[in-house]
Design a protein that fits this description.
The chain is mainly beta. The protein has a single domain, classed as TolB, C-terminal domain (Neuraminidase), CATH 2.120.10. The strands form six sheets. The protein has a five-stranded mixed beta sheet with strand order 1-20-19-18-17, with no helix packed on it. A four-stranded antiparallel beta sheet has the order 2-23-22-21. It has a four-stranded antiparallel beta sheet with strand order 3-4-5-6, with no helix packed on it. The longest helix is centred in the first third of the chain and has 18 residues. The N terminus and C terminus are likely disordered.
């Protein structure tokens, strides 16, 4: 008889797990507030807002560039290129310095944010994808479900953040932005952005940005959603993608996620 009840319990557990899939964080829908011009030849890797301008890094060997861009017109005010052997990746600002990652070279370039003069380099293991700054440390992605928290002085790994949505690891973390105590992360080959608690690694909410892709659907050669910039003073979130002709300003979702709708 005990074996019968044990078997019954196993069957009921299996049925319940099938009927009730693992809970996931709530999803907000991105709502477009404005559309601005964006360079459709830019394979966008990193994006940030500083001193009234957008700073954008682009990728591809022989086409990796850093530029300062007027967000309203898309005009490029200043631009430099990486040597052809480097594939540019994520970008972050620490005070008046820019940190620009490369994909597989294990090297980050440190530049003056105003002049783009090179000030030095940093070394790291593995691949570099996205980069952001939380006011104390740099946070770097490499396409996995783990973010590295780095000391800007020498890129020493201070700690690691394992990102998960309840009990499921969230990998393919790409371009990053730190917004009001959260890490926002593009998910490679996805139209979703994860909003991550930097202390626990929990995804506190998802942002569904399919409306943005729909808005550029008629354009040739558009690639993945990639590029998040935060204008803290105006509380504006800028989003774009690789080879997208449009830069979007979206209505910022509230800190408390709603179910299926933006707030």
């Amino acid at each position: 008889m005990p074996r019968f009840f044990l078997l019954l319990a196993v069957i009921l557990t299996a049925l319940l797990s099938t009927a009730c899939p693992a809970q996931t964080a709530a999803t907000n829908t991105a709502r477009i507030a404005a559309q601005l011009p964006h360079d459709a030849s830019a394979f966008t890797q990193g994006l940030l807002f500083y001193d009234g301008a957008l700073f954008e890094s682009t990728g591809k060997y022989g086409h990796s560039r850093l530029r300062r861009v007027n967000p309203d017109t898309g005009a490029i005010d200043r631009q430099i290129s990486l040597p052809r052997r480097y594939f540019g990746e994520g970008l972050a600002r620490v005070d008046d310095r820019l940190f620009w990652l490369t994909w597989r070279a294990g090297r980050a370039f440190v530049l003056d944010a105003n002049t783009f003069e090179q000030l030095g380099t940093r070394r790291y293991d593995g691949e570099g994808w996205g980069l952001t700054y939380d006011g104390h440390h740099l946070i770097m992605s490499d396409g996995s479900a783990t973010l590295r928290v780095l000391d800007p002085a020498d890129f020493t790994v201070v700690r690691r953040i394992d990102v998960h949505d309840h009990d499921r690891a969230v990998d393919k973390l790409n371009e990053l932005e730190y917004i009001d105590g959260e890490i926002w992360a593009n998910i490679w080959y996805s139209d979703r952005i994860a909003r991550i608690d930097p202390d626990s690694g929990d995804v506190v909410a998802w942002l569904d940005a399919r409306a943005l892709r729909d808005a550029v659907a008629g354009s040739d050669d558009i690639n993945v959603l990639n590029g998040i910039a935060w204008d803290a003073e105006a509380e504006r979130v800028y989003l774009t993608g690789k080879y997208w002709p449009t830069l979007f300003i979206i209505e910022r979702p509230g800190r408390e996620a709603s179910t299926g709708e933006a707030r």
